[in-house]
Write a structure and sequence with these properties.
- The protein is 0% helix and 54% strand.
- It contains no helices and eleven strands.
- A hairpin with a 6-residue loop joins β4 and β5.
- The radius of gyration is 13 Å and the shape is globular.
């Protein structure tokens, strides 16, 4: 099992940058792939970015490429999401998720951190 705790959310203005962090505790985090998702009010949960257990592979939907960067530090059991040029439509609760490498679904989720971007 692994427990995930996100931090770094807040209220920012359009065009600002924000870095979210997710700290994992429990079993060795280096065996888990990780990802960030987000959910805006009234909308379905949306995939933002993922990273392999070693950090060697990342994946983004086309809409996030160039503005969002996912990274991890297995020595510190952390996964980060750097978000640049934020837009009001980026407003959502951002969730960190993890799964054993090779698993189909993300089994472990954090409680989420709110990001609000004002225009």
């Amino acid at each position: 099992q692994v427990q995930l705790v996100e931090s770094g959310g807040g209220l920012v203005q359009a065009g600002d940058s924000l870095k979210l962090s997710c700290v994992a505790s429990g079993r060795a985090f280096s065996i888990y792939s990780a990802a960030w998702f987000r959910q805006a009010p009234g909308k379905e949960r949306e995939f933002v970015a993922s990273i392999s257990s070693s950090g060697g592979r990342t994946s983004y939907p086309d809409s996030k490429k160039g503005r969002f960067t996912i990274s991890r530090d297995n020595a510190k059991n952390t996964v980060n999401l750097q978000m640049n040029s934020l837009k009001p439509e980026d407003t959502a609760v951002y969730y960190c998720a993890a799964k054993i490498s090779g698993s189909l679904y993300y089994d472990y989720w954090g409680q989420g951190t709110q990001v609000t971007v004002s225009s």
